[in-house]
């Protein structure tokens, strides 16, 4: 066992292939044996999760270089290799991905009524693609996987989505993301023609002239900002969330949104440091606008999922502020907030999903007084609502506070305006909670009286543990990032 | 043991919340009471060791958030002010808790209520004991949700829901200030640790340390202090952020009201009392604090005299007193402020609890106008209320007398504008608060009765458990001030060691003791007696008086102005609370998200393409001669261009051909074809 654990035996390609293998096995099993399909899907995802934990255990905190590196020849004649590895920045995204997929599979356990096998397969493929994105250290292949995640996601929204509008949503989702990434592809080609390689190791040591940096940065920004999402291009997110099935929302909020900010952190900031510096005011302005604007929009939503989606936009823009404060606190805070948002907003979507499964509506005005019929649910919902408004002791607080600290040192105005989001966050979170949980019970609309069952409580439990753990002892997460993040800051000479 | 003080209430709330349904309300009550009563002796021992034994405790457990220079550890600091606060907080909150077991015994949701109460009890020691700003912030914020959920404990009442939603964001406005303040604190010395910051406070108060905000320079330490003060004011219900207090009091049960007062308000004043070294270094911040404190006490006192809801009146009394504590800090007498806080903790618990007893007895009637003559029905409660009120208005040698005697004197001997301002406003509000606490007493207990027969018949005095607890508090409100006076604010006392640092030029305790003219010294006590006297004599006439006032138009305006809390709520509601969501819907959601962005974005694109496709498809008429015509035209143009290439290329860029060709796609040929 100990020999197996030795880092030389852990390989990332195995981690990427593991869910893929599971989905191939699932393909050959006939549709009728649903119990077997479910258990294989769950087992595969759990094994992947456990396997990814070994990477965390074996991770070496003391170095900033990429670990568990593998290189496979792909297009040798044009010098493009499949080159994978993780460092302190990407480690937790991999773990977060593998953590969320078993949850998604459990969510679809009984609520998915059609195409059950395909559901499992879609999520497993999605998982392996997302792990690949976070591990990929080759620019072109990053692009390939970054885009390919869209396909299973498009299918998930399109097939298991709830209403007729899902086609619109899937279309918007696809349109926005694809439109942005065209520019990124052009930029990648441009880089390839200048340097002759798309290997990140080499690119990190390449210096582009300042004008080129700015052009390339804008091209990357066009793609990443859609995923974050930044303000003028954010409208796909509420649509997609509302139409997606619960598990789809979890993936969307938990992982897909992080692709954009991860991209900034992995490519834009270290490769184009001068352009990054040049664009700080731009990014900060957009993010601050987004925080205030989407928070205010959230206050007036009546669809539960839309509220959480809009509040996700606000949180993700907190992340960009932290990231572009370009100091260690800001960046570490932004990574932590991303992780925390992955847990908290996913859990909130699960809460909404639990309500939707019972009452078949997501409109806030049909709910009320749930505290008297669903006490366990209300406690859990309160926990995540408080975490969403970043109460100290929860994971979001650590992230948000570090971000604000970082931002304050870069620009106090930005920090002040961003901190306004705290007030608005309290307003909409509590309004939502009050409407759903307190007040008079509405027996005309709510006909079912079942609290969470054991499976659902089991689903929420890891989230609660994660949020408290991150909030009370974030050191475990922070210590893995220190070296990589300070290397990032040093590398760009931002201090 | 020191850690037990902080952690012991936590399992209590967990038990009540998670296992309450198995234990039943009696079982839960037993276990939680055990937790409370176990946690009470520890602060006493701590008080003995730390304050009397003069040995400061500093416990560092583990690192919490650590990122580059930012290092917030889980550390606890027990100095004199901490242990004083701890005693007050644990004593009051455990008494109140016991009271609640009796008070809420008939409530169907008493378990949930106990859990909420316990959460607030368990969060209270956090801000007091933390050794860095983040720890303080943790405890500080943690009280918020506890408050939110306990306001909501009668969740079907719309008023309670509204108050709950209002409480948190207003609270958050304060936290917004304190979060910014903490960031500001962190920026110059790169630490959030109390001791380090205070050690270097004088260095960073030099004018060369400033923040740039919107390209303007602000003196660092003043900005930090004012921001932190906003945070404190949010907790402490100072003017502007006080709007929450009356609503909260109305929504809460008397029990949670007193917990709230004991905990939140403590946290607020403690914030200021914790950081004297840095306040001392920013005179401007001190002036702001003095003004705000004095104005709060005056505003609250004037509003309170025309309120009719029992709990609201008490809320405004408390608000007015908290103003006192703040301006005592503003004239840099932190020890007096803490002393005042400690004394008033007993009164503040006693008054809402006795009011609760009245409300309980009157079957949940809260309007004072519908009470009256209860003294003979509830003699015990009346006695308790009387003790509380006398002590509150500063009847000589009761607990409330000592600080109330000292604070205006100190303000006077400051000999500054802010000091004088505070002195006169303070004295006037002494008069007003004396008037309105006695008005409460008369209306409720002495005036001819106005209540319903049904209520009077069901009226009963406090049950034995509640009575014992009230007696404990009443003892506190009689004796504590006398016992602690020389220890805490006596001349030359060494009780606070170095923790309440007062810079030498601000030290005025001796001055006020010996140099104040006797008339000035007598003003507060005279005013308060006068207030009570006026209340006694006027109140029987008050109805006619107020009625006469209300019928004149200007009098009516004034009455409404004061009764409606100077329209703070209205202003906030109309200008902020209504306009922001309006923006959220009309502008950001409807006009932009569902309007401009969508039209210019996905729907615009799909619409354009659809229209374009329609137009192009019209070209496909199916007639051969149309196609032949188009081909021949195209060919002619093409050949012409090729033929003239040499000629054209002189003055036309080659790349324009592309645009020229593409333009054909967009030509509107509809007209041509339809004519054919």
UniProtKB/TrEMBL annotation, chain A:
GO cellular component, one term: mitochondrial membrane
Catalytic activity from the UniProt record: a ubiquinone + NADH + 5 H(+)(in) = a ubiquinol + NAD(+) + 4 H(+)(out)
A biological process from GO: electron transport coupled proton transport
TM region(s), chain numbering: 12-29, 36-57, 82-107, 143-161, 173-194, 214-237, 249-269, 275-296, 334-356, 368-391, 411-433, 457-474
Signal peptide from the UniProt entry: none
Compartments in which it is found: Membrane; Mitochondrion membrane
Domain NADH:quinone oxidoreductase/Mrp antiporter transmembrane: 138-419
Main enzyme class: translocase
Keywords of the record: Electron transport, Membrane, Mitochondrion, NAD, Respiratory chain, Translocase, Transmembrane, Transmembrane helix, Transport, Ubiquinone
InterPro entries recorded: NADH_Q_OxRdtase_chainM/4, NADH_UbQ_OxRdtase, ND/Mrp_TM
Molecular function, one GO term: ubiquinone binding
Membrane topology: Multi-pass membrane protein
EC number(s) stated in the UniProt entry for this protein: 7.1.1.2
PANTHER family per UniProt: NADH-UBIQUINONE OXIDOREDUCTASE CHAIN 4 (PTHR43507:SF1)
Chain's role: Core subunit of the mitochondrial membrane respiratory chain NADH dehydrogenase (Complex I) which catalyzes electron transfer from NADH through the respiratory chain, using ubiquinone as an electron acceptor. Essential for the catalytic activity and assembly of complex I.
Family, per entry: Belongs to the complex I subunit 4 family.
Protein name: NADH-ubiquinone oxidoreductase chain 4
Organism: Anthoceros agrestis
Lineage: Eukaryota, Viridiplantae, Streptophyta, Embryophyta, Anthocerotophyta
UniProtKB/TrEMBL annotation, chain B:
TM annotation in the entry: 30-55, 76-99, 111-128, 252-273, 285-306, 313-335, 341-362, 374-401, 421-443, 464-484, 522-542, 624-644
Segments forming domain NADH:quinone oxidoreductase/Mrp antiporter transmembrane: 131-422
GO CC terms in record: mitochondrial inner membrane
Domain NADH-Ubiquinone oxidoreductase (complex I) chain 5 N-terminal as annotated: residue spans: 64-114
Any one Pfam family match given in the protein's UniProt record, by short name: Proton_antipo_M
InterPro entries per record: NADH_DH_su5_C (IPR010934), NADHpl_OxRdtase_5_subgr (IPR018393), ND/Mrp_TM (IPR001750), NU5C-like (IPR003945), Proton_antipo_N (IPR001516)
Catalysis: reaction(s): a ubiquinone + NADH + 5 H(+)(in) = a ubiquinol + NAD(+) + 4 H(+)(out)
GO MF annotations, alphabetized: NADH dehydrogenase (ubiquinone) activity; NADH dehydrogenase activity
Signal peptide: none
EC number per UniProt: 7.1.1.2
Keywords for the protein's UniProt record, in alphabetical order: Electron transport, Membrane, Mitochondrion, Mitochondrion inner membrane, NAD, Respiratory chain, Translocase, Transmembrane, Transmembrane helix, Transport, Ubiquinone
Major localization class: mitochondrion
Annotated compartments: Mitochondrion inner membrane
Domain NADH dehydrogenase subunit 5 C-terminal: 514-640
Topology within the bilayer: Multi-pass membrane protein
GO biological process terms on file: ATP synthesis coupled electron transport; electron transport coupled proton transport
Domain of life: Eukaryota
Similarity section: Belongs to the complex I subunit 5 family.
Function: Core subunit of the mitochondrial membrane respiratory chain NADH dehydrogenase (Complex I) which catalyzes electron transfer from NADH through the respiratory chain, using ubiquinone as an electron acceptor. Essential for the catalytic activity and assembly of complex I.
Name the UniProt record assigns to this protein: NADH-ubiquinone oxidoreductase chain 5
């Amino acid at each position: 066992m100990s020999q197996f654990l030795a880092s030389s035996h852990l390989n990332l390609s195995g981690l990427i292939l593991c869910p893929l293998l599971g989905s191939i096995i699932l393909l050959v099993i006939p549709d009728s044996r649903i119990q077997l399909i479910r258990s294989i899907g769950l087992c595969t995802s759990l094994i992947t999760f456990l396997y990814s934990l070994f990477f965390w255990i074996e991770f070496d905190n003391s170095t900033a270089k990429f670990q568990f590196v593998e290189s496979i020849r792909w297009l040798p004649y044009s010098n493009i290799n499949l080159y994978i590895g993780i460092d302190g920045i990407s480690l937790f995204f991999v773990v977060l991905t593998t953590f969320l997929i078993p949850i998604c599979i459990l969510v679809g356990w009984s609520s998915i009524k059609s195409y059950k096998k395909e559901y499992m397969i879609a999520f497993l493929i999605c998982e392996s693609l997302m792990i690949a994105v976070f591990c990929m250290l080759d620019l072109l292949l990053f692009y390939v996987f970054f885009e390919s995640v869209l396909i299973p996601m498009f299918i998930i929204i399109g097939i298991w989505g709830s209403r007729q509008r899902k086609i619109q949503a899937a279309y918007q989702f696809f349109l926005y993301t694809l439109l942005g990434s065209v520019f990124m592809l052009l930029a990648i080609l441009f880089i390839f023609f200048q340097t002759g390689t798309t290997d990140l190791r080499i690119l990190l040591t390449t210096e582009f002239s300042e004008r080129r940096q700015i052009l390339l940065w804008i091209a990357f920004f066009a793609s990443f900002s859609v995923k974050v999402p930044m303000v003028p291009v954010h409208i796909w997110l509420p649509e997609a969330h509302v139409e997606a099935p619960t598990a789809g929302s979890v993936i969307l909020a938990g992982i897909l949104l992080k692709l954009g900010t991860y991209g900034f952190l992995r490519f834009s900031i270290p490769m184009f440091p001068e352009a990054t510096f040049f664009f700080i005011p731009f990014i900060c302005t957009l993010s601050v606008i987004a925080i205030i604007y989407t928070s205010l929009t959230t206050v007036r939503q009546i669809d539960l999922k839309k509220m959480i989606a809009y509040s996700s936009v606000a949180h993700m823009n907190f992340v960009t502020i932290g990231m572009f404060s370009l100091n260690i606190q800001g960046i570490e805070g932004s990574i932590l907030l991303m992780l925390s948002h992955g847990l908290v907003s996913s859990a909130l979507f699960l809460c909404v999903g639990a309500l939707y499964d019972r009452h078949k509506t997501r409109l806030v005005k049909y709910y009320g007084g749930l505290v008297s019929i669903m006490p366990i649910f209300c406690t859990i919902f309160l926990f995540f609502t408080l975490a969403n408004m970043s109460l100290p002791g929860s994971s979001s607080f650590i992230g948000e506070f570090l971000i604000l600290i970082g931002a304050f040192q870069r620009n106090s105005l930005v920090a002040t305006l961003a901190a306004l989001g705290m007030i608005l966050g309290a307003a909409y979170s509590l309004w939502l909670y009050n409407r759903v949980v307190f007040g008079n019970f509405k027996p005309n609309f709510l006909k079912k009286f079942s609290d969470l069952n054991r499976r659902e409580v089991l689903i929420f439990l890891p989230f609660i543990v994660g949020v408290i753990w991150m909030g009370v002892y974030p050191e475990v997460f922070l210590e893995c990032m220190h070296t990589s993040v300070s290397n990032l800051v040093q590398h760009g000479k931002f201090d | 043991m020191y850690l037990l003080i902080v952690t012991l209430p936590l399992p209590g709330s967990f038990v009540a919340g998670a296992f309450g349904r198995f234990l039943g309300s009696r079982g839960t009550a037993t276990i939680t009471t055990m937790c409370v009563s176990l946690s009470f002796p520890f602060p006493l021992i701590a008080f003995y060791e730390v304050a009397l034994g003069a040995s400061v405790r500093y416990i560092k457990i583990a690192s919490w958030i650590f990122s580059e220079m930012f290092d917030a550890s889980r550390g606890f600091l027990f100095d004199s002010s901490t242990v004083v606060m701890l005693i007050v907080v644990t004593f009051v909150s455990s008494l109140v808790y016991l009271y609640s077991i009796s008070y809420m015994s008939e409530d169907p949701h008493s378990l949930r209520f106990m859990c909420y109460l316990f959460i607030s009890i368990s969060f209270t020691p956090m801000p007091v004991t933390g050794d860095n700003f983040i720890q303080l912030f943790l405890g500080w914020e943690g009280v918020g949700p506890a408050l939110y959920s306990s306001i909501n404990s009668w969740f079907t009442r719309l008023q309670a829901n509204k108050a709950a939603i209002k409480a948190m964001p207003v609270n958050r406005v304060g936290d917004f200030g304190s979060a910014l303040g903490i960031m500001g604190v962190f920026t110059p010395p790169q630490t959030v640790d109390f001791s380090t910051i205070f050690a270097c406070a004088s260095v960073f108060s030099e004018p060369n340390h400033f923040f740039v905000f919107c390209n303007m320079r602000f003196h660092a330490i003043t900005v930090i202090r004012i921001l932190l003060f906003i945070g404190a004011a949010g907790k402490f219900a100072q003017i502007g952020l006080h709007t929450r207090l009356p609503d909260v009091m109305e929504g809460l049960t008397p029990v949670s009201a007193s917990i709230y007062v004991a905990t939140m308000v403590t946290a607020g004043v403690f914030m200021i009392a914790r950081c004297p070294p840095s306040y001392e270094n920013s005179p401007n911040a001190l002036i702001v604090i003095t003004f705000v404190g004095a104005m709060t006490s005056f505003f609250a006192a004037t509003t309170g005299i025309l309120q009719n809801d029992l709990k609201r009146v008490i809320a405004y009394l408390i608000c007015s007193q908290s103003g006192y504590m703040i301006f005592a800090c503003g004239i840099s007498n932190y020890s007096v402020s803490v002393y005042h806080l400690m004394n008033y903790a007993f009164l503040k618990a006693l008054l809402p609890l006795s009011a609760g007893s009245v409300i309980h007895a009157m079957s949940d009637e809260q309007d004072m106008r519908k009470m009256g003559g209860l003294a003979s029905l509830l003699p015990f409660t009346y006695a308790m209320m009387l003790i509380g009120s006398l002590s509150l208005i500063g009847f000589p040698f009761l607990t409330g007398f000592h600080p109330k005697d000292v604070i205006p004197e100190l303000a006077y001997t400051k000999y500054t504008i802010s000091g004088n301002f505070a002195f006169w406003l303070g004295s006037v509000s002494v008069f007003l608060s004396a008037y309105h606490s006695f008005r409460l007493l008369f209306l409720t207990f002495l005036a001819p009765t106005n209540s319903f027969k049904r209520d009077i018949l069901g009226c009963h005095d406090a049950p034995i458990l509640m009575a014992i607890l009230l007696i404990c508090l009443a003892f506190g409100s009689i004796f504590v001030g006398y016992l602690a006076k020389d220890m805490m604010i006596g001349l030359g006392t060494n009780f606070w060691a170095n923790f309440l640092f007062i810079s030498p030029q601000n030290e005025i305790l001796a001055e006020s003791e010996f140099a104040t003219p006797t008339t000035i010294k007598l003003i507060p006590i005279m005013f308060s007696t006068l207030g009570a006297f006026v209340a006694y004599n006027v109140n029987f006439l008050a109805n006619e008086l107020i009625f006469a006032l209300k019928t004149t138009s200007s009098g009516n305006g004034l009455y409404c102005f004061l009764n409606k809390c100077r329209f703070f709520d209205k202003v906030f509601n109309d200008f902020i609370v209504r306009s922001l969501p309006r923006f959220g819907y009309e502008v950001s959601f409807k006009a932009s998200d569902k309007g401009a962005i969508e039209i210019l974005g996905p729907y615009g694109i799909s619409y354009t393409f659809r229209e374009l496709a329609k137009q192009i498809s019209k070209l496909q008429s199916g007639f051969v001669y149309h196609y032949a015509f188009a081909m021949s035209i195209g060919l002619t143009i093409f050949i012409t261009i090729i033929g003239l290439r040499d000629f054209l290329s002189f003055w036309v860029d080659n790349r324009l051909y592309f645009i020229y060709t593409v333009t054909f796609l967009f030509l509107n040929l509809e007209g041509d074809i339809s004519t054919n």
